[in-house]
Amino acid sequence: MIPKSLHALCMVENPEELEQILLKGAELFFIKCEVFASPSVQSTIQSLGENDTCVCLADFEMLSETDANMLFSHFSNNSEQALIALVSLENELLGISSLKRGASDYIVKEYMTSASVVKTMIQSLERQSFSAISTRLD
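RE: above sequence
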C-alpha cells in the first residue's frame, strides 16, 4: 500500500540534492514527502523519536563504526521506521553488510533515481510493518 506521506531524514553530504530527488519521486507516486537533513547520528535518533513512521537515508561511507552501530541499535528496537544505507558502486559490499546488521535496504548511489529511492522507501516501510505484525503474532 502506498502511504499518503513519507518522512525522510537524510544523513548525506549534499542533503539538498537528495531532497530534490525525493520530492520529484514523491510526485511520481502522488504522495507528500517531508525531507529533513540531519547533521549527526545523535540528532537523527532524536528526530526519529519524534516521528513514528520515518525513513532514514544514511550515507554509510560517511559514518564511523560507532555511528553505524548507534543507528543499527536504534532501528533494531523500532519496527515502524526504516534505515536505508546509501553506498557507492565500488563499496556495494558495505550495503550488503548493512542489511546483515539491520538496515532495511541499501541503494547504490550511482543507480539512484527519483522513482527508485521513493519505491525503496515505501517497500522498506512495508517490510518493517509486516515484520512488526509477524512478531506480535508469534
